[in-house]
């Protein structure tokens, strides 16, 4: 990803190469989707932990429900990211 970012900033031709790869290459789209998926899950889990720091969802049952909600919300966001990328 850093290589693509560097290449896109070097020249107009480099930028065009990166744009072409992002639009046509399945592997590039899959890698981007994987990175975005990891960030989405990490963000949702971070929000859950912020609520836990405030004292919510600390009991076993509510913590279990929060974990399930975390996975479901992250899965929905990951699917939406896949639709957006492809």
Automatic annotation (TrEMBL):
Annotated heme binding sites: 42
GO cellular component, one term: membrane
UniProt entry tagged with the keyword Hydrolase: no
Keyword Membrane: yes
Listed GO biological process terms: tricarboxylic acid cycle
Co-factor requirement: heme
Cofactor note (record): The heme is bound between the two transmembrane subunits.
GO molecular function annotations of the record: electron transfer activity; metal ion binding
Predominant location category: membrane
Subcellular location: Membrane
Pfam families, per the entry: Sdh_cyt (PF01127)
Transmembrane segments: 26-45, 66-85
Domain of life: Bacteria
Entry keywords, A to Z: Heme, Iron, Membrane, Metal-binding, Transmembrane, Transmembrane helix
Protein function: Membrane-anchoring subunit of succinate dehydrogenase (SDH).
Quaternary structure (record): Part of an enzyme complex containing four subunits: a flavoprotein, an iron-sulfur protein, plus two membrane-anchoring proteins, SdhC and SdhD. The complex can form homotrimers.
Family statement: Belongs to the cytochrome b560 family.
Listed name of the protein: Succinate dehydrogenase cytochrome b556 subunit
């Amino acid at each position: 990803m850093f290589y693509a970012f560097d290449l896109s900033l070097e020249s107009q031709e480099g930028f065009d190469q990166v744009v072409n790869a992002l639009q046509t290459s399945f592997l590039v789209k899959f890698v981007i989707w994987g990175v975005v998926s990891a960030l989405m899950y990490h963000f949702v889990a971070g929000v859950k932990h912020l609520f836990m720091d405030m004292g919510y969802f600390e009991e076993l049952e509510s913590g279990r429900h929060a974990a399930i909600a975390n996975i479901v919300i992250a899965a929905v966001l990951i699917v939406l990211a896949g639709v957006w990328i492809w």
